[in-house]
TrEMBL record:
Pfam families: Hva1_TUDOR. It comes from Brevundimonas goettingensis. This is DUF2945 domain-containing protein. Residues 1-21 are annotated as: Disordered. Residues 1-16 have a biased composition (Basic and acidic residues). The lineage of its organism: Bacteria, Pseudomonadati, Pseudomonadota, Alphaproteobacteria, Caulobacterales.
């Protein structure tokens, strides 16, 4: 299985409880990180992406499998 890959500045979209949101990739996370009080268990083997919501400006970490290019 090929892992999805994104780079900083890519426009992506993802689903959540209120529908679909669009935003931009800020950076790839490859080590454990904290966003506010949420701990992100990212690693080189299991990276996540820091994404900024286009609607609210909020930052969140997402697994590559949750994101798709917009």
């Amino acid at each position: 299985m090929t892992e999805k890959s994104f780079k900083a500045g890519d426009t992506v979209k993802w689903d959540h409880s209120q529908g679909t949101t669009t935003g931009k990739v800020v950076r790839k996370l490859t080590k454990p990180t904290a966003i506010k009080a949420h701990k992100v268990a990212a690693s080189k083997e299991n990276p996540e992406y820091l994404v900024e919501s286009g609607k609210t400006g909020a930052l969140a970490a997402h697994k590559p499998s949750e994101l798709r290019k917009a």
